[in-house]
Amino acid sequence: MASPLVNRIRTALGFASAGEGPGQSRAACGAAWVVGGAVRDAALGLDIGDIDLAVPGDPEPAARSIAAALGGYGFELSSEFPTWRAGDREGTWQVDVATLRGPGIAEDLALRDFTVGAMAVDLESGAALDPGGGLEDLAAGRIRAAGPNSFSDDPLRLMRAARLAAQFGWHVDPGTIELGRASAGRSREPAGERTLSELCLLMSSRDPVAGLAAMEGLGLFDTLLPEVGEMRGVVQGPNHHLDVYGHTVEVLEGVLRIESELDRFVGSDAVEVAALLGEPLADGVNRSTGLRLAALFHDCAKPATRKESDGFISFRGHDKEGADNVLAVFARLRSSRRLAEYVADLTRNHLILGFMVSERPLSRGRIFDYLNSTEPNSVDVTLLTVADRLAARGTSSIAGREMVEGHLELAREMVEKALAWRREGPPAQLLPGDELADRIGIEPGPELGRILRELDRAVFCGEVSSASEAVDYARRLLDSA
To answer: Which residue among 25, 185, 276, 429 has its CA within the 20 to 30 Å range from the CA of 86?
Structure first.
């Protein structure tokens, strides 16, 4: 297992150098094995990042030895299942050292999640151990449970299976799907933040659609995220050609398409939009992953808001109710407020631009209304509306080519305006609110707030450009109220 970090760990623990052979070890921990993802990645020819070690007995001495030799730090990661972590403060390397889960390495591997992660390399001899056939499963692109208790031992592994499908493009073995569905009722047992971490990794992977398919196959949309499962079979009106769930998947595919073809969708602003999507958002994810999450949840309230009368189907209020649902889901997953509010904001505002297409060309005032309503996520929600429109391929006129092209053109214009808003900030305040209140003779309160918003709009439109004009404009607003 060729890796500079592995060689440094071997030296730090006092094992013989590569090629010296076994029996010459000076290691205080007696034995150690590289296990899990690092072995898998090495077998796939990928760069090895974080490393997991399994050792007999107390993991603390090994972790402290690694930290001391490599100039890092060590601390206890878990006392319930003895694990220590060694790493550096710059985040360039990380080693988790855990006690063997059984009397020996073979028993430890049998208790791991999937065969592709149930492989080990002896740190002293370099010998590989693959009792479950993980290499064969890797070659076949197959996710197979390492044992019959894989999911019952840790129900989080259900999400991990789906995440691996998204990350590597693998398929879940039919027997493992059956085993997973039998344990799906326990999928809410892991801490919400652990589930959220797996969901975010899934959505940030190269093929999140494959990850969602795996989640559905494992029954997770019936148990863990019923808000998604309830979309299945919900028939929509003539604007759409698919039920709500199928439409949702196509919206996510649309977001992926936009990300890969930014030049087509935002023109000369592609570089700036790419940088924006790469910005850190919250909970370890960037805006791109947040946008994908919004695609998954943007229509989550359609099942509850569906109404049908005289053959007409409507989902009135699904944008606002959907935002409330998102906040509830992300609270259950114990996400940060920032991530929850971002996804809720995109859900709440995803219909606005579509209603404005028929008003083109837009006045400066209407552009202000949109940017003011959607900032600071105007670019993001605009991209979501494009994916949403591309996924609506029904028979009605609103789904026709002319309306779609009009929406795409308007979206390009709005992205340009939204980027300028981000660079330059909102319209300049020509005088403080308390001074304006004093000049026009009102007390601070809701009425002053209304006047200030109207003033911002007038400044954006070029109708007001000085403090004296602002006072005159405010007086006219007050008189006409």
So the answer is: 25
- Tell me the three-class secondary structure of 205-239, residue by residue: CCCHHHHHHHHHHCCHHHHCCHHHHCCCCCCCCCC
CATH architecture group of domain 142-224: Orthogonal Bundle (1.10)
In the chain, which residues have pLDDT < 70?
A: 1-2, 16-28, 397, 399
> What secondary structure letter does DSSP report for 114?
B
Residue 167's contacts (CB-CB under 8 Å, 6 or more residues apart) are 201, 202, 205, 206, 207, 211
> What angle (nearest 5°) sits at the alpha carbon of residue 281, between those of residues 277 and 287?
25
Q: What is the pLDDT of residues 304-322, one digit of tens each?
A: 999 999 889 999 999 999 9
- Distance of alpha carbon 374 from alpha carbon 102, whole angstroms: 54
| Sheet strands (E) in 305-442 | 307-309, 312-314
The verdict on whether omega for the bond into residue 376 sits within 30 degrees of 0, i.e. cis, is yes
Residue extents of the structural domains in the chain? 4-140, 142-224, 227-424, 433-480
Equal CATH topology for 4-140 and 142-224: no
Q: In the numeric block, which tokens belong to residue 55?
A: 């050792």
Supply 393's token pair.
């391929």
Do 220 and 159 contact (CB within 8 A), yes or no? yes
The packing angle between helices 287-297 and 192-204, to 10°, is 100
What is residue 450's three-state secondary structure? helix
pTM: 0.91
* Domain formed by 4-140, architecture: 2-Layer Sandwich (3.30)
Phi and psi at residue 462, in whole multiples of 5°?
80, 15
